Amino acid sequence: MSMLKGLTFTTAPKAANLISPIEYRRNKLVANLLEQREIAQADAEGRELTITRKRWELTETGEKKRVEVAKRLKRWWSKDADGKVVLVVRWGAKLLELNGDKTAVVVGDTTKLVPTLDKLVAAARAGELDPAIEKANKARSTLRKGKVGA
After folding, report:
1. How far apart are CA 1 and CA 124, in angstroms?
2. Which residues contact 131 (CB under 8 A, 6 or more apart)?
3. Residue 132 backbone dihedrals phi, psi, to 5 degrees
4. How far, in Å, CA of 105 to CA of 89, rounded?
5. Is the pLDDT of residue 126 over 80?
6. Is 108 in contact with 87 (CB distance < 8 Å)?
7. CA distance readout (Å), 119 to 15, 37, 39, 76
8. For residues 88 and 66, what is the distance between their CA atoms, to the nearest angstrom?
9. How far apart are CA 89 and CA 113, in angstroms?
10. What pLDDT does 18 receive?
11. Cβ within 8 Å of residue 29, ≥6 positions away
12. Which pLDDT belongs to residue 31?
C-alpha cells in the first residue's frame, strides 16, 4: 500500500464522449445511405449483393459460436403509380421528413438513383439532415415515455 501513496488518482474518461451524439447519429445515417448506394450500384450492374454480419449462435452441444450470416437488405426505394422511382430515407422504422413534411424524393428512373444517394450522403455529412433526425428521435422518445407510463 505504501507504493500507491505517491500516486494521484482520478476517474478514467469515457470513450463514448469522443464524438457528440449529433455526430454519432449523422455517421450512422451516412453509413446507412452508403449501404443503400451499394445496393443501388449492384442493382444497376446486375449483380447480387450480399452483406454479412457476425452474430453468436448456440450449437447443438450448447456452446456459443460466432458465425457470419447474410444481412437482409431492404431497399429504400420503390416505384409509384406513374412508374417513377421514389426514394425515402429511414431512421429505424420511421421515415425522415426531408423537406417540411415531405418524406420521399422523386428520383425518376433507376439510373439517377446512385447520384441522388450521393447528394443525400453529402447533405447528411454537411449536417443538413440533422433536424430531421432530431425530429424523428423526439417522436420516438415521446412514444417510449407514453408506453412506460401506461
Report:
1. 53
2. none
3. -70, -40
4. 9
5. yes
6. no
7. 32, 11, 16, 15
8. 34
9. 13
10. 77
11. 89, 91, 124, 129, 133
12. 96
